[in-house]
Amino acid sequence: MKVVIIGLGSIAKKHINSLRKLDSEVELYALRHSEKSFPSEGVKDFYDIKLIKDINPSFIIISNPTSNHYKTLKEVLEFDIPLFIEKPLFSGIGKKEQDLVSLVLEKKVKTYIACNLRFHKGIRYLKDILKNKKIEEVNIYCGSYLPDWRPGKNFREIYSANKEMGGGVHIDLIHEIDYLYWIFKEPKLIKKVFRSNSSLNISSIDYANYIWNYETFSVNVVLNYYRKDPKRTFEILTDQGTYLLDLLTNTITFKGEVIFESKMSVEEMYVEQMKFFISKIIPGDEEMNTIDEGYKILKYVLE
After folding, report:
1. How many Å apart are CA 232 and CA 80, to the nearest integer?
2. Is there a smaller number of Cβ atoms within 10 Å at the N or the C end of the chain?
3. How far apart are CA 55 and CA 180, in angstroms?
4. What is the C-alpha separation between 54 and 77, in angstroms, rounded?
5. How many domains are contained in the chain?
């Protein structure tokens, strides 16, 4: 198997690790912008996007900054090769983005927008058991401290902190909106508040609050970059009691008692996601988070 990677940052390295666990003989190629780029062991660098045709990979991973996704996707579309696109799909939702989505669908190129929380065992467990439950209220919370994300780096220089690079907590933590849509589908009404005035002093949005209204219940989502004691929870109030998933410990409690726990690591989630893409999406057996679905979710975030 040959795989081309466009954007060899920290997230790409997680995908590389997954690929090597699934296929020890995988051939990896990275499109680089400069010969001075720091090399990655076992990855062959190339510098002209047109060489993708000669490499003829099984698929392409697009994991460069979100602000570059539109240009990259437009350039690789001509190769008719399956695309594994790191979330979020784009940094904007204008006419040109919509037209490109339509073109991808017209060309029938296989696509997947990577949201690894769809492979979180706790979320999957709740998605299954909630099918026949009377839901009264849902609360989703994800807060952590941006300066702790990449130790040793100036957090104000990374993508997340910079609006002009397509960063912002509403984009970075689109996972929460993604699994919300995946489980409950389209809401009747969306309200939201964005802010950027915390002590972090960054240009990107550092607080986002969404309310999704459904026919019989509402969902409240809070996201932030400034919480020093990380918290990531998914709480569902039903007429029978409250389910609370702690995504950091991967445990679910119901009426105060643990009913589910898993030792699944983040690394294992990435492996399961890549396995699904290779074994199900590329052969055409299943679809998940295709480009049109990923664009719809992005519109919910940005509109």
Report:
1. 38
2. C
3. 38
4. 15
5. 2
The rounded distance, in Å, linking the Cα atoms of 26 and 6 is: 16
Extract the tokens encoding 257: 């008692």
Q: Dump pLDDT digits (tens) for 15-55.
A: 999 999 999 999 999 999 877 677 788 999 999 999 999 99
Same domain, 77 and 144: no
Same domain for 38 and 134, yes or no, is no
Question: Which residues, 6 or more positions from 168, have their beta carbon under 8 angstroms from its beta carbon?
Answer: 160, 194, 196, 204, 205, 206, 208
Domain assignment present for residue 235? The answer is: yes
Q: 261, 243, 242: which is closest to 251 by C-alpha? A: 261
State how far the Cα of 292 lies from the Cα of 177, in Å rounded to an integer.
15
Which range of residues forms the domain containing residue 79? 2-115
Q: Cα angle vertex 43, ends 51, 10, to 5°?
A: 110
- Beta-bridged to residue 5, according to DSSP, are 30, 61
Residue 291 within a domain: no
Comparing 10-14, 68-72, 117-121, 162-166, which segment has the lowest mean pLDDT? Answer: 162-166
